[in-house]
C-alpha cells in the first residue's frame, strides 16, 4: 500500500509516523513545500526572543532524521500542484529543480495547514512587514532585529500570536504598539477577562489601540508609519502581521473535496473527506465542538497532532475516531498565563444557551507559602442544568493545571456544583485545601436560583 501525505508539519508527520508503526511495510511519502518539516509553530515566538536559543530547538525532526527514525520518505521543497482524483495521482513540482511529475497513491492525506492572513492594504508590499507562520519567517525577523537594532514596532493583531510576539519584542527593549480591530484583545475570552491582560500589557509599556483597523502602511522602500482607520499615525521601524490565519484549502477544493461553513475541510470522525481514500487533518480541517455538536475551526498544534494520529490509524485500516474539541488553549503574556476552554458567555448566548457566570479571585497556593498570588477564574454555566459550558483563567501561576481540570470536567459534562466533589491534590506549595475552581463552581451554581 502506498500512502501519500501532503504537508509535513504537525498533522502530516504525526499521521505518517502512526501509519508506519501500524504497517511497517507500507510505502509512505510526505511532500512538503517548505525546507523544514515537523517544527513547533507554537514555539516560534520563543525562538525569536532567544528563550529557545537554537533553531534546532523548534525543529522536532529534519527530513533526514524523520526518515531515519520513522521510516517514511520525506520530499521537502516539493509543492503539490493538483490532485487527480480519478487517476489517484497527485501532480508534484520539485521547487529546486522546477520539475513536475505525477505520483500515484492508494490513500492520500491532505495536511496543508493554514497560512497567515495578509490584508490587501496600501503599502503592504513595503519592506520590513513580517508575517509569522514558519521557521523561515522567524529567521527573517531575528535577522532584521539583530542587524538593525530597531526601536519601535507595530504588531497588527491582538490574538495569541500577536501578544506572544509583543512579549518577544519587549525582551529586545523594543517599544511596541498593538493594533486590534476588535474592541478587546484575545477575542476567545470574554471582555472582562481580556481587560486583565490589557491592563498588564499597558503596565509593561505597551500601547494598545483597540477597535481600530489599519488602512495604510507608509514609507519609501521600507515601512515607516502605520495609519489606522481613526487617523492615528504610528511611527515604526517594522511591522509584525498577526491578524490570524486561514486554512489552506485551495488544493482540496480544486479536487472536489467539500469544505464546511467554517471554510475548512469537512471530515468525519475518521478524518475521511467526501472523496474515497482521501483524508484530511490539521489546521486545514474543521472539528466538532463537543459542547454544541457543531463544526468549529480552531487551528492548534495539539489538535493537529491528534488529528494526525487518528488519520494515520484509519489510513492503515485500524479504526479510530476523533470525537471533537473544546478549544482549550493557553498562552503566556509577559508575567501572565491566560487559559480558556469551552464557550465564553458571548459564544454560549449566540448558540442559544441561557447562562450564568461568575468571576472570583483565588490563591494559587497557600497564602503563607512564598510566591503566593491571586488568579482570576471565570465559569460559564448553563442556567437550567447547571452544566459547565466554559471557563477562563488568568494569573501568574497555577493557571495551566486549573484550565486542564476544567477542560476535563467539561469533557465529562460535569455540573458546576460537582466541582467541589473532585479529589484534587493539596500541599501548601501547590494549592489550597478548597481550590478556587471548587469555590467558583459553588458561587456560579448559586446564581442559577
From TrEMBL:
Residues 1-291 form the FAD/NAD(P)-binding domain. This is NADPH-dependent 2,4-dienoyl-CoA reductase, sulfur reductase. It comes from the Bacteria. Keywords: FAD, Flavoprotein, Oxidoreductase, Redox-active center. Its cofactor is FAD. Belongs to the class-III pyridine nucleotide-disulfide oxidoreductase family. Gene3D superfamilies: FAD/NAD(P)-binding domain (3.50.50.60). It comes from Orenia metallireducens. Transmembrane segments: none annotated. InterPro entries: FAD-bd_OxRdtase, FAD/NAD-bd_sf, FAD/NAD-binding_dom, FAD/NAD-linked_Rdtase_dimer_sf, Pyr_nucl-diS_OxRdtase_dimer. It holds the Pfam family Pyr_redox_2. One of its GO terms (molecular function) is oxidoreductase activity. Residues 329-431 form the Pyridine nucleotide-disulphide oxidoreductase dimerisation domain.
